[in-house]
Amino acid sequence: MAPTAANIPQSIHPATAQRAGEKFDTNGNVLPFPGNTIVCHLPQDSQLFKALLSIHEKLQQSRFTKFYALLPPTSWHMTVFEGVCDQRRKPGVWPKDLALDAPLQSCHDLFHEKLSKFDVGIQTPLRMAVTGIIMSKAGIRLDLAPIDATEEKRLRGLRDRLSELLQIRANGHESYVFHLALAYRVLPMSKNDGEELLALLKESYKNIPHEFELGIPEFCYFDDMFAFHRQFYLNQSAGGERSLK
């Protein structure tokens, strides 16, 4: 699926930034937001990483930095399965087999035990496509999708198995949009500022490769949105595809 400029929304959202006060303050300082997740970090030797690094540098040098908290390139990743956030404790996003008031470390330990025995059931690499660059009141991200129906089935099947294993099923589980976050919005923008930034992103988007590969999913802890600390790669058996048939 080749990316086009049409994938970039023409409308922007100058309303109050969605994540200010939760993950970042209005000065762009990162705030504590601990939890765990299963992700694939973007390989730093990939063509996509190099293209995004150029966008990152342009944003850093632009006057738009005051509106955003740019995520460190070392943190760039695609979430395979969301895991938990310590500050979000409610049915659907917290494991059914763990009390809502249990310490986060208890969740870390529970997931560590379960995932250490789990087989991803599919062979990597995961083959993905970039379907658009999105600017919204939440921030700037790349939207991603498996490159074809077979890859879609593999990745959605893995998410279903992880949901069952970890006893979490958030609203929108089936329609979850894979993505790669580049920046979080921390201040509202005027229409003129938004249009200028949109033009910058459109021009940069032309140089983004539309297909890329990701490796074995990683179980990670995080204290905030600036770093996702790998605990281990999930197990991958030589004949893993059989477990999805």
Automatic annotation (TrEMBL):
Pfam families, alphabetized: 2H-phosphodiest
InterPro entries: 2H-PEstase_DUF1868, Cyclic_Pdiesterase
Domain DUF1868 intervals: 23-137
SUPFAM superfamilies: LigT-like
Gene3D superfamilies: Cyclic phosphodiesterase
Organism superkingdom: Eukaryota
UniProt protein name: Predicted protein
Organism annotation: Hypocrea jecorina (strain QM6a) (Trichoderma reesei)
Organismal lineage: Eukaryota, Fungi, Dikarya, Ascomycota, Pezizomycotina
